[in-house]
Recover the amino acids of this structure.
């Protein structure tokens, strides 16, 4: 089992215990980390924001299961 798989399993287990409100905070924090990493790598932040806007339509869908990774 790889190190990455261990992280994925651990994160998945922890996510299952969170309320929808806290899951939203987790998603926001992940996006913050992506932007922070992109700034260090001089990647276009506007591209990320555009991508986030597109994905927010999926995340905001009532049909989307928050616990399904």
């Amino acid at each position: 089992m790889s190190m990455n798989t261990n992280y994925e399993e651990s994160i998945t287990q922890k996510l299952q215990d969170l309320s929808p409100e806290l899951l939203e905070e987790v998603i926001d924090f992940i996006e913050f980390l992506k932007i922070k990493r992109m700034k260090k790598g001089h990647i276009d932040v506007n591209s990320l924001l555009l991508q986030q806007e597109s994905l927010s339509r999926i995340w905001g869908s009532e049909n989307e299961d928050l616990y399904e990774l």
Observations:
- DSSP finds three helices and no strands in the chain.
- The radius of gyration is 14 Å.
